[in-house]
Amino acid sequence: MTSIRYKRIVLKLSGEALSGTAGYGLDPAIVKSIAQQVKEVSELGVEVAVVVGGGNIWRGKVGSEMGMDRATADYMGMLATVMNSLALQDSLENIGIPTRVQTSIEMRQVAEPYIRRKAMRHLEKKRVVIFAGGTGNPYFSTDTTAALRAAEIEANVILMAKNNVDGVYNDDPVKNKDARKYTELSYLDILNEGLAVMDSTASSLCMDNNIPLIVFSITEEGNIKRVVQGENIGTIVRGKEK
Ligand code: UDP
């Protein structure tokens, strides 16, 4: 039998991860490839919850820099995450994986509202649960949503899938060829050194609740499975100090 290190995971997909090289909108081939990778781990018996971002469609910060009311711009961002979530659900169901989307902002015609106990029941029944709509609050991010939902559903780990980098580096690896990849870090390292892994609200929440995070590349097919089976790819961030 294949060994599994993590029984229940939260997979954080940024909007960018769904847009491929275009950096904007959705690339159906990429969405399909991610769905296939999710299927692989789901079929191993891993309980998979996904938190989807919206940056490929809209970011609240951009709107507010253009003079919009920040909260309104953020609500637009949260709605963007719903579109991405529905695209991923569609792709997963096309390959036979039962999936539920739960939104933190109610829109009953398109998805279930977020109900923690119901989400946990779906996971126990091996349905993939997609958490859409972020936290439902402006001024937050979908990274914070991943931390919050992981704590709520008692996930063993957050897997942060990246499409442009394969872990956490001490400098931008695209601009600096000598940038060094970390294999292991603590949340305090991230906060103290200002490493661009996730925002400080999300990092603090993970640290306080001792939730490990693995940052890895999703562009190589099979990587979600590798991480779940305990292969050391990417960077692991631990709740407690190293
Ligand atoms: N957002 C928000 N509250 C949340 C989650 C998201 O206001 O709890 C808004 C925010 O404007 C953000 C946008 O939704 O810019 C898209 O989310 P995020 O930037 O986290 O997406 P990602 O970078 O992962 O694609």
Automatic annotation (TrEMBL):
The subcellular localization recorded is:
Cytoplasm
User: This chain belongs to which protein, by name?
Assistant: Uridylate kinase
**One Pfam family of this protein, by short name?**
AA_kinase
Q: How does it assemble?
A: Homohexamer.
Give the gene symbol.
pyrH
Q: Tell me which family the UniProt entry assigns to this protein.
A: Belongs to the UMP kinase family.
Q: Which GO terms describe its cellular component?
A: cytoplasm
Q: Which residues bind UMP?
A: G54, D74, T135, G136, N137, P138, Y139, F140, S141, T142
Domain named Aspartate/glutamate/uridylate kinase: residues: 7-217
Supply the source organism for this entry.
Answer: Salinibacillus kushneri
Detail which positions bind ATP. K12, L13, S14, G15, G55, R59, N163, Y169, D172
InterPro entries documented for this protein: AceGlu_kinase-like_sf (IPR036393), Asp/Glu/Uridylate_kinase (IPR001048), Uridylate_kinase (IPR011817), Uridylate_kinase_bac (IPR015963)
Q: Which keywords are on file for this protein?
A: Allosteric enzyme, ATP-binding, Cytoplasm, Kinase, Nucleotide-binding, Pyrimidine biosynthesis, Transferase
Q: Which chemical reaction does it catalyze?
A: UMP + ATP = UDP + ADP
